[in-house]
């Protein structure tokens, strides 16, 4: 153990966690189906109270199948920084698909302002449905390195 390098980490204050969430645009969403896990990069928007996840569905999406079976999702944000300057934020809770009236608040302009641009891989853009989910925050953990 004397040859393993380590850095101490400390909990973040709530205001620092909020700043990290508000400044970010992309995180890694962890989903599960029994003992099978699935993690994907996703665009998200945090307005200081609610955390929204934007997902693209082409009708045969693996992620959408996992969304249906996940009871407790986890969004991970992090920066490994350089040396001793790193941090991570984990947000956990259930995913709830926005109903039509809530979804209407995210028109094309609002989507472009709120979320990172959408990456499309070998899909017909016209065949993609954008879905917005709220990650209903049950817990948030923020850690950062320190001296």
Description:
The chain is an alpha+beta fold. The protein has one domain: Electron Transport, Fmn-binding Protein, Chain A (Pnp Oxidase, Chain A, Roll), CATH 2.30.110. The protein contains four helices and nine strands; from the N terminus they run βαβββαβββααββ. It has helices at residues 14-23, 62-69, 100-103, 108-114, and strands spanning 9-11, 26-33, 36-46, 51-57, 73-82, 85-93, 95-97, 129-135, 139-145. Strands 1-9-6-5-2-3-4-8-7 form a nine-stranded antiparallel beta sheet. β5 and β6 (85-93) form a beta hairpin. The longest helix is centred in the N-terminal third of the chain and has 10 residues, at 14-23. The model has no long low-confidence stretch (mean pLDDT 88). This is Pyridoxamine 5'-phosphate oxidase family protein. InterPro entries: Pyridox_Oxase-rel (IPR024747), Split_barrel_FMN-bd (IPR012349).
Task: Give the SSE map.
Layout: E1 9-11, H1 14-23, E2 26-33, E3 36-46, E4 51-57, H2 62-69, E5 73-82, E6 85-93, E7 95-97, H3 100-103, H4 108-114, E8 129-135, E9 139-145
Antiparallel strand pairs: 1-9, 2-3, 2-5, 3-4, 4-8, 5-6, 6-9, 7-8
N-to-C CA distance = 20 Å
**Uncertain residue segments:** none
Strand content of the residues, in percent?
Answer: 35-45%
**What's the gyration radius in Å?**
17 Å
Helix content: 10-25%
Oligomer description: single chain
CATH superfamily: Electron Transport, Fmn-binding Protein, Chain A
**Class of secondary structure makeup:** alpha+beta
Question: What is the number of strand segments?
Answer: 9
What's the CATH topology label?
Pnp Oxidase, Chain A
CATH architecture: Roll
Mean pLDDT: 88
- Largest sheet strand order: 1-9-6-5-2-3-4-8-7
Instruction: Return the CATH class.
Output: Mainly Beta
The succession of helices and strands, N to C, reads: EHEEEHEEEHHEE
Q: Please count the helical segments.
A: 4
What's the story with the biggest beta sheet? 9 strands, antiparallel
């Amino acid at each position: 153990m004397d040859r393993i390098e380590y850095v101490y980490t400390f909990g973040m204050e709530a205001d620092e966690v909020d700043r990290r969430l508000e400044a970010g645009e992309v995180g890694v969403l962890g989903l599960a189906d029994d003992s099978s896990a699935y993690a994907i990069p996703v665009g998200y928007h945090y307005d200081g109270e609610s955390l929204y996840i934007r997902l693209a569905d082409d009708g045969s999406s693996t992620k959408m199948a996992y969304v249906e079976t996940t009871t407790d999702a986890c969004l991970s944000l992090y920066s490994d920084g350089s040396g001793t300057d790193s941090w991570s934020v984990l947000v956990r809770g259930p995913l709830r698909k926005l109903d039509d009236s809530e979804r209407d608040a995210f028109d094309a302009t609002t989507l472009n302002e709120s979320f990172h641009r959408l990456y499309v891989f070998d899909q017909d853009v016209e065949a993609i449905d954008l879905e917005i989910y709220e990650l209903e925050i049950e817990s948030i953990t923020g850690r950062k390195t320190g001296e």
